[in-house]
Amino acid sequence: MRDYVKYAGILFAITFVTALLLGVVNNFTAPVIENFKNEKIRAAIEVVVDGNIDMATEKKYNVQGESSVQEITSYLNDKGSMVYAVKAVPVGYAGDIEMMIGINNEGMVTGVEIINMSETAGLGANAKGNTEWLAQFLGKGRDKLDSITGATITSKAVQKGVTDARVQVEKIAGGVGVE
After folding, report:
1. pLDDT value of residue 120
2. pLDDT in tens, 19-77
3. How many CB atoms lie within 10 A of CB 105?
């Protein structure tokens, strides 16, 4: 019986020290990870919006109704026009697809950037970084678009994210050119 108590005490000590070390490491890495994530989102915004944006004009909006859209932010660009950066997270084949969609003041898509996804390698994952395929969304929304071969669910999820983004911008911008 004493051996069981001895071994249980040793296991408890090892577990306690490991948990303590993990907590300390998390305290140091969590802010770094958060900064990296924010930089990735900032870079995606700059890719998808039309023109250079003035960060001081940033205005956040609430998402209305059920949608894959999580965040809507507007900016004034260097041309004096309002542009919208919309973060959408539709559900794909293997999980969420985190993406940023740019929409101009006429309701047209100016860019689509996939930030993070866990789709199947060689199939759905081909959507990320596939600038030729993502370019088909520019200036469009609910149109019939091409799918990636073997990745129909991923393709439909990305299209849903773009469509949801346009619908949400239409709601907050009062119907500016969005079909």
Report:
1. 54
2. 999 999 999 999 998 888 888 888 888 888 877 888 888 888 888 778 888 888 888 88
3. 19
